[in-house]
Amino acid sequence: MDNVSQEDYLTAIYRNLDEAGEIKPNLLASKLEISNAAVTDMLRKLSRDGFVDYQKYKGIKLTGEGELYAKNMLRRHRIWEVFLHQTLGMPWDKVHDEAEKLEHSSSDEIINLLEEFLEYPEVDPHGYPIPDKNGKIKKSKTVVAITELNENDTAKVIRVNDDVKNLLSYVTKIGISLGKEIIVKDKLEYDGSVLMMIDRKEVNISNKIASNIFVEKIK
Amino acid sequence: MDNVSQEDYLTAIYRNLDEAGEIKPNLLASKLEISNAAVTDMLRKLSRDGFVDYQKYKGIKLTGEGELYAKNMLRRHRIWEVFLHQTLGMPWDKVHDEAEKLEHSSSDEIINLLEEFLEYPEVDPHGYPIPDKNGKIKKSKTVVAITELNENDTAKVIRVNDDVKNLLSYVTKIGISLGKEIIVKDKLEYDGSVLMMIDRKEVNISNKIASNIFVEKIK
DNA sequence: TTATATATTTAAGTTCGCTTAAATTTATAA
DNA sequence: TTATAAATTTAAGCGAACTTAAATATATAA
Ligand SMILES: [Mn+2]
Ligand SMILES: [Mn+2]
Ligand SMILES: [Mn+2]
Ligand SMILES: [Mn+2]
What we know:
Two copies of one chain form a homodimer. The termini of chain A are far apart. In chain A, strands 3-8-4-5-6-7 form a six-stranded antiparallel sheet. Chain A folds into three domains: 6-62, Arc Repressor Mutant, subunit A, CATH 1.10.10; 71-140, Arc Repressor Mutant, subunit A (Orthogonal Bundle), CATH 1.10.10.10; 144-217, Ferrous iron transport protein A (FeoA) (SH3 type barrels). Helix content of chain A is 39%, strand content 16%. In chain A, helix 1 packs across helix 4 (64-87), helix 4 crosses helix 5 and helix 4 (64-87) packs across helix 6 (108-117). Chain A is an alpha+beta fold. The radius of gyration of chain A is 19 Å and the shape is globular. At the A-B interface, helix 5 and helix 6 of A face helix 5 and helix 6 of B. The structure holds manganese (II) ion (MN) (4 copies). One manganese (II) ion binds next to loops of chain A. Chain A binds a DNA duplex through residues 3, 5, 24-26, 34-42, 45, 56-57.
């Protein structure tokens, strides 16, 4: 397969599987920002080519081959992100969009050389794990969304969702980066927002944002 | 413009302009390995979009904008080649095909950062000059094809055509690399081939190959 | 259970970049 | 100059990846 669209479909499917390992066309369409009709169309092709299990009106599953392909795309994407951030000094809120293009234009050979050059990084600049050549993903620390914390919990930021538009640049603005310590001061009942301390400053973040920042509880 | 094909057309046009600054559709088609009809089609679009001057049955010229765009593509291409060869250690006969894809997927920002990281290289791994941000190309040494040399001339390899299939890997096999010294022993009248010394070994290369290796005469 | 809302598929149509075949123009050679 | 060859354009058509609108199936709520 040598195709930008199909590769983005597979990645989007893999990233958004539910607990049952499925995804609905409607969600996929919204993640890819295209029409439902286009998704139906493409699902037939991906199914014909053996990358997804698809039956009309049923949830979409990846085949073994499809899952491997998707994980390899994540590998390419994340290794490029590390390179752009770490080697070229590009800010973490810009690397995703660039990697979104580069991932389709680089042979496995380039990716393997890059990985070696970068000394085998384990996570991308947003804290997501990098699959190895065989699609194996190291099981990472147990993390929870900030929304799961309780009052007075102290936690360390491990991962921030890199798939949400403008989230990273906003999060940067309020002082959050990987490894940063936060302390939950208050959880507001009526809107689910969270009041917390970052660098000795009080910051209130909405429930929506809190649900996309993943942390490791300290003690 | 955000298009692989159009970008490759512009680059191919620029690289193959004749002394009059023009190229014929037929040559362009063969360089791009597509039909003449496809070229006619695309020329209308490139003309409509202001990148080429085109009138039916006349030679194709680049507009100012078209030339700038083409040179920027060469810049991207060659900077990627330097990175792949120099930083990742990919052999010089493999980097061209990879760069052919990467050139379309990288913002000017990435290219500028890469250029800085590489410490502003002046030529790509095949000896071709790298245009700067403004499209300026440093005028390089005066070179001649090996076919232009005379018996007993000594010369240094400065540039090898990177656009000819399998040329680089062949040339590598017979011991030629950038900077290598050669001595012309004999020029065969009947087929234009050249007999020369490389590393104290006698090597005969065809006229076609000799015409794609560029050297600087020594003394 | 039935009405209504939502999700999904089907149908028809568009743009892009290509193809082959036929028509036409330009170049070359007798 | 004229016949022939070569280059170029035109015409028709294809697959990929989209779109919008309409039809149909499924989910949800009264
Ligand atoms: Mn992508
Ligand atoms: Mn990421
Ligand atoms: Mn290219
Ligand atoms: Mn080159």
